Amino acid sequence: MTAHPGERPSEGLTGQADAEAAFSAAPWLARAYMEIHRRRHLILYGNVEDRILWDNDHVPFRHAVRALLVTAGFLAIGEYDLVDGLTFPDPRSERILRRHLGGRADPAAHDAPDPPRGSRAGGSVDRLRRRVQNAQDVRVRAPAEMLAVALPMLTQRETATALVMHAADLVIGTGLPAGDEYRSHLAHLRRLFAEAAMATAVTGEEELHNTVILVCHDIVTLPEALCHRNPHVAAVQVGLPDSAERVNYLVKTLPRFHGGDRLAPQALHGVAATIGNLTEGMSITEIDALRATSLTARLPVSSAKELIVRHRFGLREDPWERLDQDKVAGAEKILGARVIGQPAAVRAVADVLCNARVGIGFTDEDSPATRPTGVFFFVGPTGVGKTELAKALASLVFDDEAALRRFDMSEFSQEHASERLTGAPPGYVGHEQGGVLTNWVRERPFSVILFDEIEKANAKIFDKFLQIIDDGRLTDGQGRTAYFSHSIVIFTSNVGAGDLRPGLVGPAPAAQPSYQQVEAHFREAVETYLTRELRRPELLGRLGNGVVVFDILRPEMIGEIVDKFLDQLADSARRKGFDVVFQRGLIKREVVAAVMKDGAVLGARQIRSPLLERWVRTPLTRWIIENAPEAGTRLWVHGDASAPPFTVHPVVE
Fold first, then answer.
1. Which of 16, 42, 267, 501 has a 20 to 30 Å separation from 316 between CA atoms?
2. Contact 463, 476 (CB under 8 A)
3. CA distance 589 to 591
């Protein structure tokens, strides 16, 4: 059976099973059909700009709604939007509704009271009726007038009538100014819901109540009292096409993709199944856009994953697979030069780069790569290189530390703060700005994302973390999806650092534990935190071997870090024309003693500032300012009892 707008089908649907069997259609249409026969008005929300499956074909959303109403038995249909005003999809609907609005309806229609003559609504009805009687074309554009004249249309009992209001949120949305006009619109609509639900008309062997259908993208944009607390209203979500629908659509359209016309029938169905899996979350309109990408970029349908990456991110190929192989092979050495004394952590990150470069994984070729490229939980004492390793990784891969996006989770300690990541819901302040996290990932899907000190975040945010790890995507408040499948996600935490036993970290090497002891301590702390405090054991399971324990700061590590900073200082001075030499042994001994006297509780942060800043850099720059040496002068930074702990002198050749 085929039902087209303006045509009455030969037989109606009598139940949900019949609705699903009579035609191949989107599942939400069957539910909408049943709600109509339960005497409910409808709110249709969600994927309302897409093409909808109806009678084994994909038609525009408005056409699908009209066909549904015709199949349900409505003889007259009116549609309203702010652009075209009140319109009729077929001549019969216009003829019937013009007759009712012109005052020649069945006498039973007058059981419903007319609006008071002195009111704005009553005046609107009178004006429209005069226009109907004197003109061939009736155009009602203002929302107030449309709501007023809808009352006689939907309270008459002669003809089963439906009124569809498109973009209803622009008429009665919660984001509109709550003035007299807005309250009047709500009042008219509530009355319309109540009185139209009581007006029934016989169609064939059935009784249908006159029905109002509101259409919007998101139901939260409509007043709660109108939608959720109204017994006359049912909300039906217009869902995205499921996998089977996408595959069926692709079978029909793949021959119009680049290279699709050369596929044999068996291969065609195989490629359709592959792309159908990879397009999870896409609408039919987006799949049509995928075809445009295939044709424009001349990417054949046989290169399914490459086509999806190009379409979603605008990338010509998987960027991780473009990484220089020599750079990846030497990643452990390069990262280790910046993050000193953390070989386990450095190796874990280097392994992820190898995996990303080679591209071998535990996914089928036709399955979407949903999880991020890498997920890490860096844990350990403060100041031992967790954030520095994230920076080093961004610099290695992208040659730019700006590819690292750091989120200080202490700024997300309040429950409502989680909305900052994905954006406020519709109707709330800042909704149009989107989320700081989703905006970043949509703009730079190929990046390193650092969630610093996550133990300070509100527990509600961990729901979003789970979604990132599991699904590799987040949807913002505007319905836009951000994909994390090409990102490395790093969580850092100091959990367990405050529970180190007295003497576990001390100034003497003999008092310090082995790395194995430190690792066991922090792994136990992470497990306790995630499973007992947060009650999120599933998060621990998702992390797997991504939990990376950083070692405590040891004296030999401090000496290497001092050497690194002194080398940086010497290089900087050389660029200014000075050759600086340091008494490194003494400087390192003094720094180690200062850092370890309190057990290195502040980590390596104090090495550069304040220690080397105060002891070496400031005396050096002050001496240069006061003595104005010539370029090429060699300077000696050394210990001096008269100017503790270090002083500067020129080296006389």
1. 267
2. no
3. 6
